[in-house]
Amino acid sequence: MNALFVVSISNNPYMQNLREFCDIPCLPWPSKKRKNLLVAESGRPKEAIERDRYGRFVISDRKGVKADVFGNNYVDPRLIVGLNDEDATVPNIYSYDLMTNELTLVMRNKRFPALYVDNALNIRLAAKEQPNGTVIYYRRSATAPSRGLLTSDEDQWEEILSFSAEDAASNAFMGFDKSNENIYWLWADNSNDLGKFIMFPISSPKRQTTLFQPNRGEIGAIFWNFTERSPVAVSEVYHKHEWYVLNETVLDDMQVIVDYNPTASPYIVSYSVDQELILLTYDSAEKPFDVFLYRRANRSIELLFNTKPDLQEYQFNTMVGFEFIARDGLTIQAYLSLPPNTPLLSPSQASPASRKYAELGLLPTIPQKTVIMVHGGPQSRDVYGFNTVNAWLTNRGYAVLQEPNVLAENGFIEEFLHSCLGGQYEPFTLGQYGSSAIVTCGPCVMNCYPSQPQYPQYQYYPQYYQPVIYQPPAVVQPPAVVQPQSTQQCIGPCVNSQCPAGYTCNAYNVCCATVAGK
């Protein structure tokens, strides 16, 4: 359960240091008449109220009701809030007035788990995943009321876009332009491995304008002009965030920001409405946690504070991104972190075959004890920046190799997803959670899955995931330590279902069965 509160911070000394407020996520909302803080509290709201009595207003504290903010334009005195108070699987949409604390129903929803608003906080788009994994996006139809209560009835919505199961995860709505007639979108399909940043009219999605096309990695972040509702810069992530300017009015500013710490990746945290003041930090393995203020008037950067001052006395590791060719010819992106002050070979000291790695600072003069740290997947990847495990291991004298960022990891995704997910999941060998997620959301291509006896995971999904969850026909529960014969438990139900299957044992000692579609 999530509860939403609004906290007045105008004359609240307790709120002067947000880090001391409480361990809950919060969202500042600027108002001309008073300052508020929207607080999302997970757990028991009565206890949260006891911790702080400064002006909280409870939007919802009903048991089993999930609360989400669907819209906040930082100007209007309203928030668009979703509460699954009638149907646990989908939210009703409310308008909450931060000035009067009034909550008004604006859409009764019985169909859509995802809804999107424009800059005027009007509901304009909806999305729903189909049983086969296809995701369909809808826009309001001509028969939908322009005022009054909106519903999810079929006559009020019409299909605008449809994405297959393998493409859906790589597509994302990014917002409306200032006119609220054009949509910004991160677009990916089988014609484009890395996706692209586009714009199209909501009335005609096929009239697409490409704003940015990455070459090596996926799009990482977008810097927006708040008043004009337009993108001014976009980053592409391969080894690090590489920023590309879309609007020349910020070209000199972005150059100053990048040059201030050229070995790190700048990240824009926030900015004033007129964008004259920019709050930023840098993703840095060696010098993390610094927060800066950039002033556009004189193009100056000043250090505001360090979020973890107790760590400033320590020297952290370097982290270098590089790539190598695997035995099957696939290029793999990875990172190497070395202990601080590790002596390195110069390029002239390295062999011709290794010279490019020496130029990157990857070759120590003495071989290092190395920990290979492989991340989970498939919808994730390692990225450059401070890593607590890296800092700990390198401080103890170990090098850390983070790899491989390959296959279906986020950032290198479309080609592999089309060759694998489009091929009925055949090449996948996932952990217990990943395999159970695939089978619950893809029953057409999976017929059984492994589970620890005490954790039949499909039973524990939140109810709002119910539209895409299906109980599989067979649940295999091998012992804690997989014995050779236990793998046959995974195959029996599949054979009975007359579908081909392959199986392996993963790092969690769980037998994973991957089943091709019929």
Write down the Rg.
25 Å
Task: Detail the poorly predicted runs.
Answer: 1-45, 418-434, 445-456, 475-495, 497-518
Class based on secondary structure composition and strand pairing:
mainly beta
Measure the end-to-end span: 39 Å
Shape: globular
Strand order, sheet with most strands = 5-6-7-8-12
Which whole number gives the mean pLDDT? 77
Q: Strand count, sense and closure of the main sheet? A: 5 strands, mixed
Count of helix runs: 8
Amount of beta strand: 35-45%
What is the number of E strands?
32
Q: Helicity range of the residues?
A: 10-25%
InterPro entries: AB_hydrolase_fold (IPR029058)
Protein name: Peptidase S9 prolyl oligopeptidase catalytic domain-containing protein
Describe what you observe in this structure.
It comes from Ancylostoma ceylanicum. The chain is mostly beta strands. The protein contains 8 helices and 32 strands. The strands form 9 sheets. The chain has a 5-stranded mixed β-sheet, with no helix packed on it.
Write the layout of secondary structure elements.
Blueprint: E1 2-8, E2 26-29, E3 36-42, H1 45-51, E4 57-60, E5 67-71, E6 78-87, E7 90-97, E8 103-108, E9 114-117, E10 123-129, E11 135-140, E12 150-151, E13 157-163, H2 165-168, E14 172-176, E15 182-189, E16 192-201, E17 209-212, E18 218-225, E19 230-237, E20 241-245, H3 251-260, E21 265-271, E22 277-283, E23 290-295, E24 300-306, E25 318-325, E26 331-338, H4 355-359, E27 370-373, H5 388-395, E28 399-405, H6 414-420, H7 432-441, E29 448-450, E30 474-476, H8 487-496, E31 501-505, E32 511-515
Parallel strand pairs: 8-12, 27-28, 29-30
Antiparallel strand pairs: 1-3, 1-4, 2-3, 5-6, 6-7, 7-8, 9-10, 10-11, 11-13, 14-15, 15-16, 16-17, 18-19, 19-20, 21-22, 22-23, 23-24, 25-26, 26-28, 31-32
